[in-house]
Amino acid sequence: MYPVKEDGTWDETSEYTANGLGYWFDGKSNVSSYGDNCVYFIESGEGSVFVGRYVNIASGTIIKAHFVYAMIEDHSRYVEFIVSGTME
Questions:
Q1: N or C terminus of the chain: which is more exposed, having fewer CB within 10 Å?
Q2: pLDDT category of residue 61 using cuts at 50, 70 and 90
Q3: How far apart, in whole angstroms, are the C-alpha atoms of residue 57 and residue 68?
Q4: CA distances from 22 to 59, 60, 74, 79 (A)
């Protein structure tokens, strides 16, 4: 799993910062660590993908999660996800 940056390129260098294959993201959808600047996370495991919010994020916050699952050996084989949501 690779996050997709605002410019459309894949972030292939960030270490996972959430559980499993997962990342925390700041308000601009950049990979961040768990803490004050994070807004939401994307995690995958057991055949599912989970999107959730940081505990201090207000209801009504809008996010756009953009990520891909790609074959390690062949990046031309991938599935891309763009998820827009409003936190409750």
A1: C
A2: very high
A3: 25
A4: 22, 23, 21, 16
